[in-house]
Write a structure and sequence with these properties.
Blueprint: H1 9-12, E1 20-24, H2 31-41, E2 48-50, H3 69-81, E3 84-88, H4 92-100, E4 105-108, H5 110-113, H6 116-126, E5 132-136, H7 143-155, E6 160-165, H8 182-191, E7 197-199, H9 201-205, H10 211-220, E8 225-229, H11 247-256, H12 265-308, H13 315-331, H14 336-358
Parallel strand pairs: 1-2, 1-8, 2-3, 3-4, 4-5, 5-6, 6-7, 7-8
This protein binds phosphoenolpyruvate and manganese (II) ion (MN).
Manganese (II) ion binds at residues 26, 229, 239-240.
């Protein structure tokens, strides 16, 4: 996959003045629900109306979608509102039905991207079509699986492609439903700079209150669009109730977003600058997070030392760390002087932490 520019023709041809917007309910529940939401979204920035027909639920026993019946409802959405439609496909049978029913864009869910067998099955079923296909990241933070899914489609001749970043599952407790791991999305952009990248703040946050912020961060990081779950009665939605927003809220989210323009050379400079700064913000967040984790571990060591009545300062261990870090730093273009100063500061903070513990 060399020329990724050709893969975004479908998006460039739309000539949008704003990011691509995909919105609609997590699941199609009833014909009335689908049509009511679609009509409320009709006069907005929404480019594609989404609704899950086949719902991949992590545990059985939840609402698993209305199935092929919902495809008729999507047809009606198109007839009555003129909006294009999209849904998730997870196997060859879904692809066949979606193609027969003229769904405009298909996406592949996070639980499918993890399986090369499923990805290959879907790619084979799509051979010879010109559908737009968006690949969600796999549930686990594995860049190769995500890229691999896209490559399978490309190799099958699918030339209208894109990716959706929906965050990654984690065992660690977090304020997100699926942690964004922005650096992975940045890495993805570095590999395929022109491939359209859409952010799904609904599945990242799991919480409608956080959607504005995550959407803004995605745009700052140069994402091409947003997929936002939308329902007229979010609290009573049959799936993902906590993260859906009303059509009115969606419109206000879009209005509040600071959308970058690309009209002249000056603004292209500013755009690059803002993009790089947004990347720096991501790294800084990680630095603080890691330092916090390091101090927590130092606290635990403090407890152990207190228990056994051992001295805080262990010079041999400390010199070993410094030596290693100077070498590691060199291989990443960091000067010895900087690494020394930084680690002295970190070490001092650890000592302060441990002193507090031991003297308490
Ligand atoms: C969805 O978009 O409704 C969905 C099931 O998402 P994901 O595959 O990201 O979990
Ligand atoms: Mn959902």
């Amino acid at each position: 996959m060399k020329n990724t520019k050709e893969l975004r023709t479908w998006l460039d041809d739309m000539n949008l003045a704003h990011p691509l917007v995909i919105a609609g309910p997590c699941s199609a529940e009833t014909e009335e629900q689908v049509l009511k939401i679609a009509h409320e979204l009709k006069d907005s920035d929404v480019n594609y109306f989404r609704a899950g027909i086949w719902k991949p639920r992590t545990r059985p026993g939840n609402f698993e979608g209305v199935g092929a019946l919902g495809l008729n409802w999507l047809k009606k959405v198109k007839e009555e509102t003129g909006m294009k439609t999209c849904t998730e496909v997870a196997n060859a049978a879904h692809v066949k039905l979606a193609l027969e029913n003229d769904v405009d864009l298909l996406w592949i869910g996070a639980r499918s991207t993890v399986s090369p067998f499923i990805m290959q099955e879907i790619a084979d079923a799509l051979k010879g079509t010109d559908k737009i296909v968006l690949v969600k990241n796999p549930v686990n933070p594995d860049l190769a699986l995500w890229l691999g899914g896209i490559e399978r489609l490309y190799t099958a001749g699918i030339k209208n492609l894109g990716a959706i970043h929906r965050g990654f599952s984690t065992y660690e407790k977090s304020k997100y439903r699926n942690i964004p791991e922005w650096q992975l999305a940045i890495e993805f952009q570095n590999r395929f700079p022109d491939l359209p990248l859409i952010c799904d703040p609904s599945h990242i946050t799991g919480d409608r209150e956080m959607i504005q912020d995550v959407s803004q961060r995605a745009l700052d990081l140069n994402f091409d669009g947003l997929m936002i779950e939308t329902h007229f009665d979010p609290e009573n939605a049959w799936s993902d109730a906590a993260q859906q927003v009303t059509p009115t809220k969606l419109k206000s989210i879009m209005e509040e977003l600071k959308i970058k323009k690309t009209t002249d050379t000056d603004s292209s400079y500013r755009e690059s600058l803002e993009n790089l700064r947004a990347q720096i913000n991501v790294v800084d967040d990680q630095l603080i997070d890691l330092l916090g984790k390091r101090m927590k571990t130092a606290d635990k060591i403090g407890e152990l030392k207190k228990d056994k009545n051992v001295a805080i300062l262990q010079s041999r261990r400390w010199n070993e760390i410094l030596g290693n870090m100077i070498l590691e730093g060199k291989s990443r273009g960091l000067s010895e002087e900087f690494v020394l100063r930084m680690f002295k500061a970190i070490h001092q903070e650890s000592i302060n932490h441990q002193e507090k513990i031991i003297n308490h």
